[in-house]
Amino acid sequence: xxxxxxxxxxxxxxxxxxxxxxxxxxxxxxxxxxPLGCKVFLLExxxxxxxxxxxxxxxxxxxxxxxxxxxxxxxxxxxINQLLRMANTKIVSVWDTDIIADYCNIREAVRLIVDNxxxxxxxxCGKFIMLTPENSVQFLEDANPDKWDAKNxxxxxxxPFCGGAYFVDKNKYLQIGGENEKFTGWGxxxxxxxxxxxxxxxxxxxxxxxxxxxxxxxxxxxxxFFDEDTCIAQRKELIKVCSMDKSELIEYIKTW
Length: 256
Description:
single chain; 256 residues; alpha/beta
């Protein structure tokens, strides 16, 4: 069944620009998503603004927020929760600044939620292609995921990937906690999100075919564990959640 994406879907993109390539990628992603005609919530959290919305593609679709944040660690999960609560559509897609997925994949991820009672869906088949700097430039010159799918590039993971871009039934996802804000920076929050949704008894689905493509950028502080203590704490949180049964999880979420 075909669905009107504009009435169903909001894209949520919290970000912090830490390189020229990250800025380039964000502009490319916004340009890629704009033909869908969906509202895009942009939230920039940093010491100073680094994005000029007036120069972005289809700026009338963009609702931009700036949060002055002087902390070195970018608390992405907290900002995702803010955007989830702001959205007034049934479905919210949380999108990284560097991800491209085909339009048919996006529509199928939405359909899975609307027609198949899925709570969390992914707009790719589990294959996540990390593009080189050279491939990223080529990709942006002719952004055609179908053409790149045919190249059969090797995915970065040997298991189904669960990050980069995902779609949630907003109300159902918030009922099972939304984002776990104990993940204060880069870490295993993608795995925790997937497993927590499953433990809660909600359906998770990847589409049957099609890759996600990650545009290259330098891996700076927001792309690695903040420090050793954070690394240990986040791994402990992942293990803690994954060890719970449904009733334990529900009680734990009430403490958030």
